[in-house]
Structures are given as C-alpha cells and as structure tokens.
Design goal:
Elements: E1 13-18, H1 36-44, H2 50-66, E2 70-72, E3 89-92, E4 95-98, H3 106-110, H4 113-116, E5 124-125, E6 138-141, E7 144-149, H5 165-174, E8 179-184, E9 203-206, E10 210-213, H6 221-231, E11 236-238, H7 241-245, E12 252-255, E13 258-262, H8 266-274, E14 278-282, E15 298-303
Parallel strand pairs: 1-2, 4-5, 7-8, 10-11, 13-14
Antiparallel strand pairs: 1-15, 3-4, 6-7, 9-10, 12-13
Length: 304
C-alpha cells in the first residue's frame, strides 16, 4: 500500500507521478487547443516536437532520481498527451482526489489506475459531476489550502477556467480542519500573457516561508494582498508578465532547499540561490509552450 502524505509543496519528496511525452500524438488542430499558449504555437508552427519534450521530461526524471525519489509514470496511451499529471488528480494529507477534468482527458486517469490501486480505497475520492477542480489550482501550505478559481458569471464560456466555486466548497467540506482560501484568477481565451490557467501559473510557495508571485494574475487585489500579508513582501519574488507567460512560478520543490527550475529563468534562479536554495536547472522550454511546466507535470504522492 502507498501511504500518501502531502501537507505542503516543499517538504522532502519521496514519491511522485511524473507525466510522459512518449507517443504524444500529432500537433493538435486549432479547434483542439485547450489554452491560448498552445493555440499561439499551433498557429505559429512552433508547437513542440515529441522528441524534444521526451528529452526534457527525462532530464526532470533524472534530477528526481538523483534525490532518490520514487518516480511513477503513466501507462502509455497511443497518440495521447499525458504530460500534465497535475491536472488529473492531487493529494491532500493522505487522500487522493481524482479531478473532474475536461471530458477529453478522462483516459489520463485510466493510465495511472495501477498506482491508484496501490492506495487504500477509502482514501480515494472523486467529486460529484458539478464539481470542477484540477490539481494546478490546489496548493497546500501546512494548515492552509489555497485554491485558484474563477468567479466570473461567464465561467462556462472559459475552457481556461478549470476550478469552480463548487470545487472550493467540496474541499472545504472534505477538510473542515484546514483553512481554505480561494483566489479569483485572471482568465483569457486568446492571450496567454493574461491567462492564469491555474493558481500555480501566478503563485507558488518555495522553502518554508517564501513564494513566487505574479500580482496581475489575480482579479482582486485583495487576494494578492492576502498572500503578501501572509508571507511578507520581502519573502515574495515578484515576476513580470513575460516571466508569468514563461511559467516562472511553475517550478517544483524536491525539498525545502531544493528547487527544480527551467534553465532560462535567470532572474528567478539567481534569487533562489541568493536565498540559500539549491537550484537544479533543466531544459523545459518546449513543454512550456503548452502553458504548463514542472509543477504541472508532477503529481506528488509522498513527502516527509
């Protein structure tokens, strides 16, 4: 049995599901794009090639294994994008929550069923159909659960809105002893620089008391100020619009002092090192063209 344990984003990682770019399928058609950044690259003819994405993911896997992390991979589905495991499920404490994801992506859950079967069945839950929630919108910080959502009345018109208020309430009901705080995120169907697809596209905690944040990813300044007050402005690395677009807040922590980051994130990586972090730099810029990065392609199962 897998003894799940996830209480935050940064404690020593022991087991994780890392997505796969193998047999990723052809470049999607314009009408098949789930997000504006993928659409941008489909139209420009710069959508990433499978071999490049496979190489990037193998570099990530190698770093995880260097730190003796147990790395699970999804079973391969022919011609299918299985990179972003964060979307399909997530762990809070010792509970595995299956996401109600976009219907087209349901098969991705089937591909990790062999892992789910190793978890106590009483600890695996799936929300009712009206609850929309994806792992990229759920962030743990000890007693807190931060959840990205979209409160606009036009929620149903946005394929980029992935977690609804019913999703927030579902987590509140499931974890009554946690402090659940939702954040209303900026969404765009056409401009990736103005689209916080998930909470981890505009915020993520690192270490014990620091974070990476993009102020304009929040529709309400009060949500941004909540994090500033909680972490302290001096502990937050503020990223620019272009850095948000390049997914600077979507790094991944192996430990409180070890962060995996994209090698081109020069300003961020320098800040991390200046604050005492070991930064494991890898290439991930091709995968980033699909509006996802390191956190998006992981589903942590066990941290110390």
């Amino acid at each position: 049995m897998l003894e799940l344990n996830i209480k935050n984003e940064t404690s020593r990682l022991r087991a994780v599901v890392l997505g796969s770019a193998v047999n990723n399928g052809p470049t999607p058609k314009v009408e098949e794009a789930y997000d504006p950044k993928s659409l941008e690259h489909i139209l420009a003819g710069t959508y990433p090639h499978e071999k490049d994405m496979v190489n990037e993911m193998e570099a990530f896997s190698a770093v995880l294994k260097k730190y003796n992390v147990t790395v699970y991979r999804p079973e391969m589905i022919e011609n299918y994008n299985q990179i972003f495991t964060r979307d399909i499920g997530f762990v809070i404490d010792d509970v595995f929550i299956k996401s109600n994801i976009l219907p087209d992506r349901e098969r991705e859950l089937d591909a990790i069923q062999y892992i789910i079967e190793q978890i106590d069945a009483k600890k695996v839950v799936r929300p009712p159909d009206e609850v929309h929630i994806e792992g990229g919108d759920v962030m743990l910080w000890n007693d807190y659960i931060f959840i990205g959502t979209y409160k606009g009345s036009d929620y149903k018109d946005y394929i980029t809105a992935r977690t609804n208020l019913q999703g927030v309430q579902y987590i509140k009901d499931l974890f009554p002893n946690k402090i659940v705080k939702e954040f209303d995120l900026v969404k765009s169907k056409i401009e990736a620089r103005d689209n916080a697809l998930h909470l981890d596209c505009c915020f993520q905690s690192v270490g014990n008391d620091k974070g990476i944040i993009y102020k304009n990813g929040f529709r309400e300044e009060a949500d941004y100020l909540f994090l500033v007050n909680l972490f302290g402005k001096e502990n937050l690395f503020h990223i620019t619009r272009d850095e948000m677009y390049n997914m600077n807040s979507n790094v991944f922590s192996i430990d409180t002092n070890v962060v995996v980051s994209e090698r081109n994130f020069t300003r961020l990586n320098n800040w991390l090192r200046a604050n005492g972090f070991i930064v494991e730099e890898i290439p991930y810029a091709e995968i980033a063209k699909q509006e996802g990065l390191l956190r998006c392609s992981t589903l942590p199962l066990i941290r110390e």
